[in-house]
Request: fold
Amino acid sequence: VQLVESGGGLVQPGGSLRLSCAASGFTFSSYPMNWYRKYPGKERELVAAIQGTDGTTRYADSVKGRFTISRDNAKNTVYLQMNSLKPEDTAVYYCRCPASGCYDTWGQGTQVTVSS
Reply:
């Protein structure tokens, strides 16, 4: 089981980025997928989640209306579209498959930096 994130980088405030997380080694469509972020010295926090069965989504209050989680089950990939980025969105972003069937696997993380 493996999760590989991509798409991070440096962006100006107000800009956009799309993160991708490519999954392998399990039946991707059957499981929920999450995006987390981690600030230095703090625990990872849940940013967005999407169900595998019906695609139901939920978001942290801090990103509602700005971030969108989606998935393409044919490509075994989950995305996080991030718009109207703020300096406080600067963090390392991780995807996670939070289920025993995918061994509660985390990706390696991708850095997002929002700065002018």
Remarks:
- The chain has a mean pLDDT of 97.
